[in-house]
Amino acid sequence: MSTAPHAxxxxxxxxxxxxxxxxxxxxxxxxLARRLLARPExxxxxxxxxxxVFFLVAAPAVRDGDSMANILYQSSTIGIMALPVALLMIGGxxxxxxxxxxxxxxxxxxxxxxxxxxxxxxxxxLALVVSLAVGLLNGWLLVRTGLxxxxxxxxxxxxxxxxxxxxxxxxxxxxxxxxxxxxDGFGQARAVFASDFxxxxxxxxxxxxxxxxxxxxxxxxxLRTRYGNWVFAVGGDKESARAVGVxxxxxxxxxxxxxxxxxxxxxxxxxxxxxxxxxxxxxGQELIYIAAAxxxxxxxxxxxxxxxxxxxxxxxxGMVQQGIVYAGxxxxxxKAFLGVMLLGAxxxxxxxxxxxxxx
Length: 359
What we know:
This protein has 14 helices and two strands. Strands 1-2 form a two-stranded antiparallel ribbon. The termini are far apart. The longest helix has 27 residues, at 248-274. The protein has 359 residues and is mostly helical. Strand 1 (196-199) and strand 2 (202-205) form a beta hairpin.
C-alpha cells in the first residue's frame, strides 16, 4: 500500500499590510524617535539649545549681534581644536599635549620669523612641520610601546611645556616672543588665520568660517570614507579591526597627526591675532578640548561619536564663557559651570544611549 509523501514545512504566510514585521520574521525597524536618540550628537544639541535659551533670558545683552559674534568666535577657537581631538577619541585615544602643542606651534612660527628675519610664511610652514612631527611622535610611541595614550601624551605635555619656556627664554631673553606685525607676509597670514569680515553690520571672525568648514570636512571623513570606517573600527576593537585588514598603526598615527594639524592652525590664529606669544600659555586648555568632545557625545572608551557633536559642545563652552560676562556674574564661576555641564552631558549621553538601545 502506497503512502503519501512526507509533507515539507509549511510556507510562511506573507505579512499582512501594516503588521510591522518583515517577511523573514525580523522585528520592525525601531521608531524614528529612538533612532534619533541613538545619534551621539542629539543629547548635546538639546543641551546647547537649553543653555542658549537660558542666557537669552538671563543676559539680554546676548541678543545683540556683536555679542553673538563674540560668542561664536570664542566657540570657534575651542571647536577647531575639538574636532581632531574628537576624531582621536572615536579612535580610542586622547591627547593631553594638545593644549601646549598649540603654543609650541605659535612659538616656532614667531621665533623662526623674527630671529632669522624671514618672511612669516617660512615660520608658518616650519611650525606646521613641527606640529605634525609632535603628532607623529605621540602616535609612534603609542603603537610601538603599547602604553596608554594618557601616559604617552602626559610625557609629551611635560616635555613641550618645558621646551616652550626654556627655548623662548634662551632665544628671546624673555618669556614672550617679539612682535612680528611689521614683518613681510604678516598681512597675508593674518588674513588667512585672524581676519574678520562684516555680515549685516556685525564683524565676524574668519575662525568661525574655518570652524564650520572643518566640521563639514570631518563629518564627511567619518561618514563617507573608508578612513572613517577605520577610525570607528580601531576605536571599537583594534584587534578585531586588524584581523579584518584595517591598518591600525596608520590610523592611530594619522589621528595624532590630525591633532597636530589642529594645534598648528589654532596656534597660527593666536600668533596673528596678538602678534606675540606667551610661552607659558596653553596649560589646561587640553582639558577644555577633551571636555568639548565628551560633551559632544564622544566616549572615552572609543568607537562612538561624531564630528557634529563637538561643534555643539564648543558652542556650549563659548555660550557659558561669554554669557556669564554678559549677565554680569562673577566670572570665577565659569569653571564650576563647565564642570556641571560636563557631568550633565555625560549623564544625558548615558541616558540617551540606554534609551536608544532598549527594546
